[in-house]
Amino acid sequence: MNIPQHIAIIMDGNGRWAKQQNKPRSYGHFVGTDNVRNIALKADELGVKVLTLYAFSTENWKRPKEEIDYLMSLPAVFFDKFLKELMEKNIKIEVIGDLSVLPVKTIKVLNQAIKKTKHNSGMILVFALNYGGRNDIVEAVNEIIKKGNITAITEQDITNNISTKNYPDVDLMIRTSLDYRISNFLLWQLSYAELIFIDCYWPAFNGEKFVEAIEEYSNRQRRFGGLL
Ligand code: V0D
């Protein structure tokens, strides 16, 4: 099996999963948080180098305030339960997106976890928070302009200044719960990625289904490598 170096996941369907069992949306988010741990550990075990998870998009601010407040408490819930385990596995936490407008408490929790795992040399677990793909490209261009004296830029300039500049290109993008959209996730970075859409809500997505997706990726690579 050909293991992708960098996997990106849109963790969709938490609300619908909860509704199916007559539970509040927040319950879906809560179980979804536990599932982040399951999938991250599986990815680590398989030898994935970078796992990028779309946790909160710039469009998610349109949701009811109550739901947003709950979502913003989840990084703390996640680290209280799992930071010890992440340390044991030598996993490094990083974040992409515009954190400046998140609640101060959430920013503090994130910075603490980033700091604590900074010297870990294993898998990098990246959370995309208040992230938008178009904004990521615009910010990269602004970075380039700031460096001054520029009349033309190249693709490499953008690649070198975008939020994922330190990671390998995304090999595989998985979206759960069968919406066939990129939804302003990693636009620049998904140019050559395999896209896999899975008929399963995020809280019900498990290690077995994750491995199946990677097998599908691996088969596509093999067909491509063998020139059809
Ligand atoms: C809800 C499914 C973990 C998607 C997963 C702030 C929607 C559960 C985190 C998390 C969310 C983020 C950063 C970090 C550590 C953990 C998270 C949000 C939503 C939005 F450093 N799960 N999770 N963050 N959900």
Condensed summary:
This protein is an alpha/beta fold and 228 residues long. The chain contains 7 helices and 6 strands; from the N terminus they run βααβαβαβααββα.
Verbal overview:
The chain has 228 residues and is α/β, with parallel strands linked by helices. The protein has one domain: Decaprenyl diphosphate synthase-like (Undecaprenyl pyrophosphate synthetase), CATH 3.40.1180.10. The protein has helices at residues 14-20, 25-46, 65-88, 104-117, 133-146, 155-161, 207-225; strands at residues 6-10, 50-57, 92-96, 124-131, 172-176, 194-198. The chain has a six-stranded parallel beta sheet, with helices on both faces. The longest helix is centred in the middle third of the chain and has 24 residues, at 65-88. The protein is globular. The structure holds ligand V0D. Ligand V0D binds next to α2, β2, α3, β3 and α4.
